[in-house]
Design a protein that fits this description.
Length: 421
């Protein structure tokens, strides 16, 4: 059986929901509207589903692939404009309704939840109230979603501080972090992958996926998504430039992924092959004392994928019996395997990371761990001093390829000068 989905294009009254992705992919309590509709059509027997997309069809195609997630063959067809149901029926059912699902499932305009109900895109109030009213039903088909308290729903692998306050009704999506003293609700929806910092308050509001809400930030009667903020009752819109208030965590995740490029990894392998006598010299020095050659260290870093998740840990080694940069020689292996970069902020232990007091200091962890750091280039003797924290925060905000090159060149120049004197 066949079915057809018409993705909505322009909806001036709910344009904010289309800023990050097409309206067809608007988040609905952890899933997209298109995902829910495809699931419904597959459940009533659709095996071939054609999706008509006039707005960013490439994003729609990337979201559905070939449809195997729904057990159907899904094809995305770009259109110059959004067709009406009558136009789509005339264009694609020209040979009659044979082989198609019965009306109304044969051609679906994607402007409401499966099963009917009010249109989602006539105004922000209808969309928000529909989501609030559907939380209990949605919890039944979201994997890992649990009712933490009456009308308080918490998703899979979300972490909520014991000091946080959750007031019903509220929804907290998967992989979301709620900090100490935060207040969520009433009437709050926090989508997946968000990070709500300490003492933030969210009420009568929707927080889009992968959004950071800063400490002490108060979000009321608003839609917040990335840097964008809109009062949903009045339509007043603003772009928040301060990352400490609101920001898009996916941009930080992309930044965090840049630990070492293929060229950087190859350079690390080359450096290891050229300097292999270094561990041999260190081993000969340590042999008489019985000390091990390598000292293991545990470090934390921001996750590569899924903004809002807790910190990851990884193991690296220091070479005993050596000083200066030679002590860091084993970290070349971390660069070669993609755990670190040539230039970044120096790795922190979990205990050190736990002492970072505020958002400014916590910027240390928003840059990848690196063999060299700005603090090294500025001559900080203590890698975790107050000066080092300032340099780490500055680097996290201002990092660029040019700055990385300047830092590495300055450190290597100092290193080579010291080795030749």
């Amino acid at each position: 059986m066949k079915a057809l989905i018409i993705c909505p294009a322009d909806r001036a009254k709910t344009a904010f929901l289309a800023r990050h992705s097409p309206l067809a992919l608007a988040p609905v309590l952890g899933r997209s509207l298109l995902d829910l509709t495809l699931t419904h059509l597959a459940s009533v027997g659709a095996k071939q589903i054609l999706v008509l997309a006039a707005d960013r069809p490439e994003k729609v195609r990337a979201a559905v692939s070939n449809g195997e997630a729904w057990g159907a063959r899904v094809e995305v067809h770009p259109e110059q404009r959004e067709l009406t149901v009558a136009e789509a029926r005339a264009k694609y059912q020209g040979r009659g309704p044979e082989g198609w699902l019965p009306v109304p499932n044969d051609i679906v305009l994607l402007d409401r939840l499966p099963g009917g109900g009010r249109s989602l895109f006539d105004n922000y109030g209808d969309w928000f109230n529909t989501l609030l009213g559907g939380m209990a039903d949605a919890a039944g088909d979201r994997i890992g979603m649990r009712e933490f308290a009456p009308d308080v729903f918490v998703g899979l692998r979300s972490q909520i501080s014991q000091d946080a306050r959750l007031e019903p009704p509220c929804w907290i999506g998967n992989h979301t972090w709620i900090g100490a003293g935060a207040r969520i609700g009433p009437n709050a929806i926090v989508e997946s992958g968000c990070y709500v910092d300490a003492n933030a308050e969210i009420a009568d509001s929707f927080i889009g996926p992968d959004t950071y809400v800063g400490a002490l930030t108060d979000v009321r009667e608003s839609f917040a998504w990335g840097h964008s903020l809109m009062k949903w009752k009045t339509g007043v819109f603003s772009e928040v430039a301060d990352d400490f208030l609101l920001c898009d965590l996916t941009s930080r995740a992309r930044s965090q992924r840049r630990r070492a490029s293929l060229v950087g990894k190859a350079a690390a392998v080359l450096a290891l092959s050229l300097t292999w006598p270094a561990p041999l010299v260190a081993w000969l020095r340590n042999r008489s004392s019985g000390k091990p050659l390598l000292t293991p260290r545990l470090a934390v870093r921001a996750p590569m994928f899924g903004a809002g998740r807790p910190m990851e840990t990884y193991c690296y080694y220091e070479m005993a019996g050596c000083g200066g940069l030679w002590k860091r020689w084993p970290e070349l292996f971390c660069i070669a395997r993609g755990d670190a970069a040539w230039v970044g902020n120096r790795p922190l232990t979990p205990a050190q990371a736990g002492t970072l007091k505020d958002e400014h200091e916590q910027l240390w962890l928003s840059a990848p761990p690196g063999l060299f750091s700005l603090a090294d280039a500025m001559g900080c003797a203590d890698s975790f001093s107050e000066d080092a924290k300032v340099h780490a925060s500055f680097y996290a905000v201002q990092r660029s390829w040019r700055k990385d090159f300047e830092i590495a060149a300055r450190i290597l120049k100092r290193f080579l000068k010291r080795e030749t004197t």
